[in-house]
């Protein structure tokens, strides 16, 4: 198939979906206290506005990925914008907390339709020797969305109520829907493997239980309920893997661990997300509670990580498309390990050390993340690219779940009880030592990656462009 000439313009529709999903998370977090007051509900209940959205995504991602491989994934992706916009409209006019949570579930369904196919759409649009640059551009958009979410939410709340924060998704979603239906390449070859219903249900329940354990364990620590959630989720995961070994069409596709490049990429991606989440939450808590920084200062410090990720990603993407991903991923993982030392060294935890850690970790992630994703997607069979892309997104959530559990285990629940600053400093240093070991393990895994240069070839042959831009 010929390379799609307007691929870089079409990519901006994918980037719009990425921007909407990342912007939405930051915006909603800003308005939770206001919702609690308006709905006359405790903040613990209002937290379900965020939790219901995350639970819906982790439960549906693999199911929708498998389903999209059987259908025209460009339509699944495009109509995801419509579902997300409808959920946003309902959320904006929700009269009570229950209807708000239902609206957020609808938003989560739309977001799952988008996220399960976003990596696959890039794979369809671009030849292998351009995927790195394309996903690097997407990483920059993620950085912009992550940075601007709280700021946009705060600014809008200065002159309007929280409903406007949801209403802005409606025109953006409808615009993306129309552009997607008109310009996304259509699928002409599709996979027809049967759906793995039992495996999908087991995966959905197990990941939901683990996510609930992570969300509530973050603030309460390891209570009996939290341990039960983690234990039951883990048991179901073990049963899932035992079951998946017996069938040929499982939701945990065998290509995920039998293909060397994909196995290396997915394993390293899991560890990267563990390292990021296990350190980001405790250091944020430390700046607020021990260093007593105002919210604005904490926000500026945390912004260092996505800023430097956005700077490093394009450089890494260019290098991967020209020379391969082997060396940048190793260097990126090594820089992440080195960044931990600025917290570990010395008698205390100092602002300069925090800034250096966040900046260097952002550089390491920027060098690693986009091109690691590019290697995974370029190795995926064309008839399974949506499933592989959805599992890649799910792995990020697994990394988040493990990272939060690791942080709670070593540093204690963030806000569970008052902690002596000296004791907390020691705990966090120990946690960062463990995260440094995780990053070093990631370096060793990346050494197993095949040394291959991307070939100048057309994108996957399963697509046909609908109309030129």
From TrEMBL:
Phylogenetic classification of the source organism: Bacteria, Bacillati, Bacillota, Bacilli, Bacillales
Protein name as it appears in the record: MFS transporter
Keywords assigned: Cell membrane, Membrane, Transmembrane, Transmembrane helix, Transport
Principal place of residence: membrane
Source superkingdom: Bacteria
Species assigned in the record: Paenibacillus residui
Location in the cell: Cell membrane
Major facilitator superfamily (MFS) profile domain residues: 10-453
Listed transmembrane segments: 12-32, 44-64, 76-95, 101-122, 134-156, 162-185, 197-216, 222-243, 264-286, 298-319, 326-346, 352-372, 393-416, 428-448
């Amino acid at each position: 198939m010929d390379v799609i000439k307007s691929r870089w313009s079409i990519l901006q529709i994918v980037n719009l979906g990425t921007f909407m999903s990342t912007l939405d998370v930051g915006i909603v977090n800003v308005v939770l206290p206001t919702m609690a007051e308006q709905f006359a509900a405790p903040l613990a209940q209002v937290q379900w506005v965020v939790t219901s959205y995350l639970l819906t995504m982790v439960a549906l991602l693999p199911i929708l990925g498998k389903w999209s491989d059987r259908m025209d994934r460009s339509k699944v992706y495009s109509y995801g914008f419509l579902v997300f916009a409808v959920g946003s409209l309902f959320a904006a006019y929700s009269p009570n907390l229950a209807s708000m949570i239902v609206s957020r579930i609808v938003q989560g369904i739309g977001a799952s339709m988008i996220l399960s196919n976003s990596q696959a759409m890039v794979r369809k649009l671009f030849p292998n020797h351009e995927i790195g640059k394309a996903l690097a551009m997407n990483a920059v958009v993620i950085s912009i969305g992550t940075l601007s979410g709280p700021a946009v939410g705060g600014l809008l709340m200065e002159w309007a109520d929280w409903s406007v924060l949801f209403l802005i998704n409606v025109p953006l979603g409808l615009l993306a829907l129309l552009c997607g239906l008109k310009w996304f390449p259509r699928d002409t070859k599709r996979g027809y493997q049967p759906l793995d219903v039992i495996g999908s249900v087991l995966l959905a329940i197990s990941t939901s239980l683990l996510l609930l354990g992570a969300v509530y364990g973050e603030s309460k620590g390891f209570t009996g309920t939290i341990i039960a959630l983690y234990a039951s989720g883990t048991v179901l995961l073990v049963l899932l893997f035992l079951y998946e070994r017996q069938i040929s069409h499982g939701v945990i596709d065998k290509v995920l661990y039998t293909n060397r490049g994909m196995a290396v990429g997915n394993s390293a991606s899991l560890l990267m997300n563990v390292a990021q989440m296990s350190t980001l939450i405790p250091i944020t808590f430390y700046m607020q509670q021990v260093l007593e920084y105002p919210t604005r200062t904490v926000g500026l410090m945390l912004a260092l990580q996505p800023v430097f990720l956005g700077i490093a990603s394009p450089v890494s993407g260019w290098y991967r498309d020209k020379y391969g991903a082997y060396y940048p991923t190793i260097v990126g993982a090594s820089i992440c390990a080195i960044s931990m030392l600025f917290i570990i060294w010395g008698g205390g935890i100092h602002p300069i050390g925090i800034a250096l850690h966040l900046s260097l970790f952002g550089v390491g992630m920027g060098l690693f993340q986009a091109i690691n994703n590019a290697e995974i997607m370029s190795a995926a069979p064309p008839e399974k690219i949506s499933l592989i892309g959805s599992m890649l997104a799910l792995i990020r959530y697994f990394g988040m779940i493990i990272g939060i559990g690791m942080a709670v285990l070593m540093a204690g629940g963030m806000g569970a009880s008052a902690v002596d600053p000296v004791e907390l400093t020691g705990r966090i240093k120990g946690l960062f030592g463990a995260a440094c070991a995780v990053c070093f393990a990631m370096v060793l895994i990346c050494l197993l990656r095949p040394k291959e240069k991307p070939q100048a070839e057309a994108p996957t042959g399963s697509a046909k462009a609908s109309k030129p831009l």
